[in-house]
Automatic annotation (TrEMBL):
Signal sequence coordinates: 1-20
Organism: Hymenobacter mellowenesis
Protein name according to UniProt: Glycoside hydrolase family 127 protein
SUPFAM superfamilies for the chain: Six-hairpin glycosidases
Non-reducing end beta-L-arabinofuranosidase-like GH127 C-terminal domain sequence ranges: 556-662
Domain Non-reducing end beta-L-arabinofuranosidase-like GH127 catalytic: 36-432
Transmembrane regions: none
UniProt-recorded Gene Ontology molecular function terms: hydrolase activity
Domain (Non-reducing end beta-L-arabinofuranosidase-like GH127 middle) ranges: 443-554
Length: 682
């Protein structure tokens, strides 16, 4: 891994950088890079391994089999016909390249690197002499993709995705350079970025990019090279939103009003998370980046307001976002339907990026609480335990009676629009980078994952080791290891859920408060600690082998939604630690929609190492509604409810699933006729 200094040196830029770029403002808190954090746990480490050994190879294989690679070959030859469906299909290659690069940073692999070099050569060959790179036009410029427009960029505001492709290219290029020190992909990206900066900007062309991410990508190039144009162009793009004259401000249609593209108002006037959720959350991530790097207070205030809106009114209890399928978008405030929940996997990926940045800006544990919620629930539900089947949308409820038509009841290997599998492929290997943060002497622990990290605190090396069996057990152990005594503050996140807060807003609350307290010991002695912004602040002169133990209460909690979430009225969800649970047909006599969880139900939590790659299962005896068709009657019987982690559903065939349970028979949805074309199980 190269440091940014050596990187600047290699680019020959150190001598020419303006002072402002050398002493640039930045996030007050730095994430400890993923290359400095080694995971040894049983929850994430196997997933990262699967990503490397299954997901990434499968992604490349599918990019080849579905002609995504062929598009680059044809663009290089300037002959043929664009051979896939969408003009952004190039990005599946970029995203997989990015994930594979992170993987290489963690685990060198000469064969993989050679394959990436071959692929990069194909990408380079498809680039036009001035840097333009977009196979959907270059293959046959006289007949570009229907979404691309006759001329370059002419449909960028709508659907061409030219700048979206660029953004993913930049992210991949920085990742590959950092992993290998090779500039092959980086040079392609810089050439493209220089064209973009020469084309767009004050006094040049203006556009609010139709699908954000070029802004985040430009910021990464700016960090890597120090070239101010990359940052100013990112800022320029963000500031273009809300100025297009062709919308109808009064329209309630998300496209006609411009909301779909977050283009209905200038960003500093935006107050709600709106429109296409992936677009939106990439925009908000970029707003945080630019606010951090420029100190733009109005941008910061806007992104804070939007975050509050999303977390208070537009997020599922699993952390999923983007409730509405039509437009893959955020709904209105409190519009969080279960039977038609959309929750695109990419939106969860984007949400991790955004919340990490918010944490780095503010140092508040609430952002890591959201990251944790998304990671353990709505994000990893997106990939099957096999590592090669994926959900595009993440349902909250599957009802047999609807014939599985409303939501996606089973994962698929690939999609025509295959953004989600490749987005997961790039997120997983970078996960160790979300565990710790540092600001001078303050070391933040955001995620609880066994493993170790090597830090430098005031130029002294400190190794911090975590041992735990999270998320299944709440006893966490941290060992501090360094040669000499060291003065630093260890800030351990005390999750909201361990402080009687189901969500850092009133969108979800626990049905009953818990009296259990978080206990912290240092070298075996209980200590009083100060809680600052959700972190237990442990101030100490640390000695070699000092040990901190934190005990988080792992009771089963029932969660209720804000009364304005109509679909959850009279219902509860089940949570243990950070994990949300669901009931699936397989464990519950073939149904899930007939289960009632009355107030006061007592649950047992049982470790099941052999079930679904190792889970803790919840069970309780509860009433369930049964039909007696022969006697034309309905009654309730007592039955064991078995609940599994939400992320693990749909790994054993197709059938009913629910996250929210009615508390009384009045709230059971008594539509029970099974659709004819539906079979349960495999
Ligand atoms: O438009 C590119 C990607 O395709 C979006 O991020 C996804 O929502 C899907 O529409
Ligand atoms: Zn997606």
């Amino acid at each position: 891994m190269l440091t940014s200094k050596s990187f600047l040196f290699l680019l020959g830029l150190t001598g020419t950088l303006p002072l402002a770029a050398q002493q640039r403002a930045d996030y007050p808190i730095q994430a400890v890079p993923f290359t400095k954090v080694k995971l040894t746990d049983n929850f994430w480490q196997p997933r990262l391994q699967t990503n490397t050994s299954v997901t990434i190879p499968a992604s490349f294989q599918r990019c080849e089999a579905t002609n995504r690679v062929k598009n680059f070959e044809m663009a290089a030859a300037h002959s043929g016909k664009f051979a896939t469906t969408y003009p952004f299909d190039d990005t599946d290659i970029y995203k997989t390249l990015e994930g594979a690069s992170y993987s290489l940073s963690l685990e060198p692999d000469k064969k993989l690197e050679a394959y990436l070099d071959e692929l990069i050569a194909k990408v380079g060959a498809a680039q036009e002499p001035d840097g333009y790179l977009y196979t959907a036009r270059t293959i046959d410029p006289a007949h570009p993709h229907a979404w691309a427009g006759k001329e370059r960029w002419e449909k960028e505001r709508e659907l061409s995705h030219e700048l979206y492709n660029s953004g993913h290219l930049y992210e991949a290029a920085v990742a590959y350079y950092q992993a290998t020190g090779k500039k092959n992909l980086l040079n392609i990206a810089l050439k493209n970025a220089d064209l973009v900066c020469a084309t767009f900007g004050p006094g040049k062309r203006a556009v609010a990019p139709g699908h954000e991410i070029v802004e985040m990508g430009l910021v990464k190039l700016y960090r890597a090279t120090g070239k101010p144009e990359y940052l100013s162009t990112a800022k320029f793009f963000i500031e273009q939103r809300g100025h297009y004259k062709g919308y109808d401000a009064k329209s309630t249609d998300v496209w006609r009003s411009g909301q779909y593209w977050q283009d209905d108002k200038p960003v500093v006037a935006q107050t709600e998370a709106v429109g296409h959720a992936v677009r939106a959350e990439y925009l908000y991530s970029a707003m945080a980046d630019v606010a951090a790097l420029t100190g733009d207070k109005a941008l910061l205030a806007a992104v804070d307001t939007i975050w509050n809106n999303m977390v208070a009114k537009k997020m599922y209890v699993t952390g999923g976002t983007g409730a509405v399928g039509g437009g893959e978008r955020f709904g209105d405030n409190y519009e969080l339907p279960n039977a038609t929940a959309y929750n695109e996997t990419c939106a969860s990926v984007a949400d991790i990026y955004w919340n990490q940045r918010m944490f780095q800006l503010h140092g508040d544990a609430k952002y890591a609480d959201i990251m944790e919620k998304v990671l353990y629930n709505g994000l990893i539900s997106g990939v099957g335990l096999d590592g090669k089947s994926f959900f595009y949308s993440n349902a909250m409820q599957i009802k047999n009676s609807t014939g599985f038509k409303d939501t996606e009841p089973a994962r698929s290997g690939w999609f025509d629009c295959s953004c989600c599998p490749t987005n997961l492929a790039r997120l997983f290997p970078s996960l160790p980078g979300y565990v710790y943060g540092q600001k001078g002497r303050d070391i933040y622990v955001n995620l609880f994952v066994s493993g170790s990290t090597d830090l430098a605190v005031q130029n002294k090396a400190v190794r911090l080791t975590q041992q735990n069996n999270y998320p299944w057990q709440g006893d966490l152990k941290f060992t501090v290891n360094q040669a000499a005594t060291s003065d630093f503050n260890l800030l351990v996140r005390i999750p909201g859920w361990a402080r009687n807060e189901a969500m850092p807003s009133n969108l979800y609350t626990f049905a009953t408060p818990s009296a259990e307290k978080v206990v912290i010991k240092v070298n075996g002695q209980p200590i009083d600690y100060q809680l600052r912004n959700g972190y237990a602040v442990l101030v100490r002169k640390w000695k070699k082998n000092d040990m901190v133990e934190v005990n988080l209460p792992m009771e089963v909690r029932t969660v209720v939604a804000h009364p304005r979430v109509l679909d959850d009225a009279g219902k509860v969800a089940l949570q243990r630690g950070p994990v949300m649970y669901c009931a699936e047909w397989k464990d519950n006599d073939g149904r899930a929609s007939n289960i009632i969880v009355p107030a006061g139900t007592t649950f047992t939590a049982t470790p099941k190492p052999d079930v679904l790659n190792g889970i803790t299962e919840l069970s309780a005896t509860v009433p369930v509604v049964k039909l007696d068709v022969a006697n034309n009657s309905i009654n309730t019987v007592r039955q064991t409810l078995t609940a599994i982690p939400y992320y693990a559903w749909a790994n054993r065939g197709k059938g009913e699933m629910t996250v929210w349970f009615p508390q009384q028979v009045t709230d059971v949805e008594l539509v029970t006729r099974p659709a004819k074309d539906v079979s349960q199980g495999k």
